[in-house]
Amino acid sequence: MDRTAPAQEIARTAEQCRNWGRWGDDDVLGTLNFIDDAKRLEAARLVRTGEIHSLAQAFDTNGPQKGWRRRTNPVHTMTDTGADAENGTQGFPNGMGGADDVIAMPLQCSTQWDGLGHIFDRGKAWNGRRAGVTVTSDGDLVTGIQTAAANLVSRGVLLDLGRVLQGEIGADYPELPDGFAITEAHLEAAIDRQGESARVGRGDILLIRTGQYARTRRDGWGDYAGGPAPGLSFTTAPWLHRTEVAAVATDTWGFEVRPNEFDDAFQPLHQVVIPNMGLFIGEMWNLESLAEACAAERRYDFLLSAPPLPITGAVGSPINPVALR
Amino acid sequence: MDRTAPAQEIARTAEQCRNWGRWGDDDVLGTLNFIDDAKRLEAARLVRTGEIHSLAQAFDTNGPQKGWRRRTNPVHTMTDTGADAENGTQGFPNGMGGADDVIAMPLQCSTQWDGLGHIFDRGKAWNGRRAGVTVTSDGDLVTGIQTAAANLVSRGVLLDLGRVLQGEIGADYPELPDGFAITEAHLEAAIDRQGESARVGRGDILLIRTGQYARTRRDGWGDYAGGPAPGLSFTTAPWLHRTEVAAVATDTWGFEVRPNEFDDAFQPLHQVVIPNMGLFIGEMWNLESLAEACAAERRYDFLLSAPPLPITGAVGSPINPVALR
Amino acid sequence: MDRTAPAQEIARTAEQCRNWGRWGDDDVLGTLNFIDDAKRLEAARLVRTGEIHSLAQAFDTNGPQKGWRRRTNPVHTMTDTGADAENGTQGFPNGMGGADDVIAMPLQCSTQWDGLGHIFDRGKAWNGRRAGVTVTSDGDLVTGIQTAAANLVSRGVLLDLGRVLQGEIGADYPELPDGFAITEAHLEAAIDRQGESARVGRGDILLIRTGQYARTRRDGWGDYAGGPAPGLSFTTAPWLHRTEVAAVATDTWGFEVRPNEFDDAFQPLHQVVIPNMGLFIGEMWNLESLAEACAAERRYDFLLSAPPLPITGAVGSPINPVALR
Amino acid sequence: MDRTAPAQEIARTAEQCRNWGRWGDDDVLGTLNFIDDAKRLEAARLVRTGEIHSLAQAFDTNGPQKGWRRRTNPVHTMTDTGADAENGTQGFPNGMGGADDVIAMPLQCSTQWDGLGHIFDRGKAWNGRRAGVTVTSDGDLVTGIQTAAANLVSRGVLLDLGRVLQGEIGADYPELPDGFAITEAHLEAAIDRQGESARVGRGDILLIRTGQYARTRRDGWGDYAGGPAPGLSFTTAPWLHRTEVAAVATDTWGFEVRPNEFDDAFQPLHQVVIPNMGLFIGEMWNLESLAEACAAERRYDFLLSAPPLPITGAVGSPINPVALR
């Protein structure tokens, strides 16, 4: 990989990993096409104890966002409260009282999916569509996240890179340092060491734990939103393509390693995998309790249910993914 | 039931169905305590084909809300679009382009859960807490919906009252008319006729289809938000208590029959079951495709995954529930 | 005017009234350039009694908006209340208590100015700039409303067409009927009948009262937002150009007559006067109390102060214009 | 002043400065009652050159707010853009194109007025009303800012403490240091030194420039929102009461000196002057260009027009105040 030639590397890798037309001209699902009934049935059969883990970070004003691209933390306000109910100012009879609330938030403020309309490559959206007429101010007119409302439940697999690599990088915690680029070799090593339940294949939703989120819980958010972070190397694109995973999520803000590996680029792996491969990416997931449970039992696959909110035309969605083991 | 004495009937029924203290003084989960690992394992084992149904209505400006209590439809706006990406005005290198978005919405605008802080009875919130210090302008400080982030996955059971009663009420469609009060007898009849897979018990999440949502898809929203509707009779409270269901959701705006059955009351069944029983209520669910699949196969139970977004302090949450069969 | 040939008529009128380059290539103010210190001094000297009129409609959920182009009524919510203060849940010492609030609103939801970036003509914004790079998802990068923060105070003149024409149209109220197109002849007649204080010239801010807002106060909003309305005829563009007014505001939703006068057009007068002439347009003003005062005294000019909120990059602004007489 | 006894000092000063009942039991205007037609006429006559100054700070995401009490910076988003217009995806005929926008913001995010419902003293709002039933989740039901829509235009007077005291405090810039408490003696000295046009009396709107805002323009926002700042001493309350000013605004976040002068208090001067005196307070004003003009000409009074947006029930309002000289 030539770090001085991002445009060329991106173009080459995009071509290599491109799935345009693979599921027809009208496709809106990309790699979610890899998930079918059989896959979901396989996933449901992984449940052995009924134990559940929520994989969401909190949605509140104490979040990591600092306003970049107008991404703020969510603002939740009450339109009615218990205090009003006590005071009898709500106008309901018989001692009835109520509380109601509203929220204003970027769809990328906390745990989320990137939709296929979230990233473009040289003016093209997923399946080769023109970006400018696909995602307008009215939203994503073609691949809006609501089209994937029933498609993000599958077998989940956790690759806990933070734990797997802790020894060889000599870390105090099971966490990768900021700037650490996870390569194909690291991914394959993780699968090997974690064993059979960690094999990754068609239709799986792959969860990659770096440990960075655990670090923020200890040290504060710092530059979690956009700053240096461990993450996938740009060079993993072909592996992601070859394994035919349906989606990949990480416990970091930006999925790929930061700073990015080119001298001048911005999230180049996004640029390849979303518009070209049609891959769904999840970010800012909380994989902590799940990772502990997996490690304790050395069992790394589970039923993952992470359907997006069907917000018409959205290019992303806040979610509360749950893993059932 | 004396329809002229709502305060008395509410007080009596509340006392009869009250679960305060049942799970300790600090409890924040109410009837969700009925769901345990064994229950979730039972639920996962119901999956036979891997077929999935999203039970959410759309989240967009074409929704049913008309502004009552400042409940508007969601407003989704883009902070970056494909058109900007094409124009090269986004400042990214190498042909990278992106789209981003934000949403402003009442948490009760579309398919949702009512949290335990949503309704009060004579100044008391769930478990007997003082409403005014439990749910303030800072949100629900005790029973915020984030406390239930990992608790709304269980066995789901659909009771399709619209279909079951179509014959005896002589309806053109499998839909109950507005104002139709579903009683305990109707519920038991539905269980009987639907058969073994429709039995309702401890920890189940009960889905009640009235058919009203199907009607709005045919005729327009009309007064779906707050107007006349089929729904549960106030008199079903003891049955809901006795069956020990964990949660109940309907395809209507307001769960209970409207107009309410008292001369002067507002959502009296809410007033009993949320603060007194600790029951989670879901509203505005889209049960159509699930109901068709269940009817076709005469199999009415499934794995239901409907975790709320963990919005800190929220008294409700938008959701995309999915049923796996 | 050929009502079957809107494109041709618009192109011809746009060319006739175009002010591109008149104030230099970098101009961001358009006709506001007509207002100078002398004009403001003249305006201040019109004040004789110190009487004041607020010309704003209310900003609340009971407004006219119905969601077209996601234009909702404003949603105002409290983040702290007096009820919380009483309960002592706010954490302040010494009996201190506070209330705070937030608002979410379209900038065009109630009384407002259209900024110069609000309308484009065949891909061109004010002064001939390319629309696509002038107003992006980041807002109006050139003519954002903040550039006019100190430019919307001048001599105001009220032309009360509703009153002036009441007799000859035989109306029960001093109000023009919906669909009534105000022509140059009507405007000149109004000036004649109202007298010297109603003369209109360079740098004035012209307020045109149709009476439609008064009708909504009597009859309800109805289709105030976008429906039939009295308003300026497309044919008044040259007059608006010739008089060199700095801005024009009406008591209607849309400034120009609706339905528009062409078989197929949408707000064609906007299309001419905003991007071509550089004219600021105000809409949804409440001219009622001012009109009564003017009529009573037969004095129609005043100091008008209507500065926009300097929202960076906005293409419009909510305002509370005040007239000082 | 005993800095260890805030509750006692607050109670004593509140009693001393209390205006409850002064304008009747139903009053909603407080000290704005001091402004009458004669006062506005006097103000208009101060205009000599027609020169205008906007006194607003910007409204955008690059503002000072950091999320305290959910006070974020404004989030402005486009619902239609010029890029869409160019692409012809808006659905308008004849080459018509449009841009539209929305904003979500705390009403206290930038240049603003505090309404009378913004602060309470021991459970009481302005005029002795009960806080809990005056300002509920539905907003300020009595003294909502819309009641002052036509009342905030008057004679403005600038006291430029930053300039007046620069010499004696030996400052490099005409700016008071953070933590500097402006006393009655300072105010009187400023009036003396600035001369006749700086006299302060009944119905005036007093603008106090500390210079802190100028410092943030040079050094960055830092802790402008809530951190250390120059401002009025708690001890100025009787002076504010005695002079019968209608309103007071500063170029700081919080009007009064910070840290506050008591060991344990939060904005104690607010607690006295808003609910007890009925005084309108303005914060985060940009007085820079006005101050330079006043200093150059040694003329410190002007016509000030600063009407709030009439947001029904609001306890504050964003504004763009303008001074006409």
From TrEMBL, chains A, B, C, D:
Keyword line: Hydrolase
Class of the enzyme per the UniProt entry, highest EC level: hydrolase
Entry annotated with the keyword Metal-binding: no
UniProt cross-references to InterPro entries, sorted A to Z: KFase/CYL (IPR007325), KFase_sf (IPR037175)
SUPFAM superfamilies linked: Putative cyclase
Gene Ontology MF annotations: hydrolase activity
EC number: 3.5.-.-
Name of the protein described by the UniProt record: Cyclase family protein
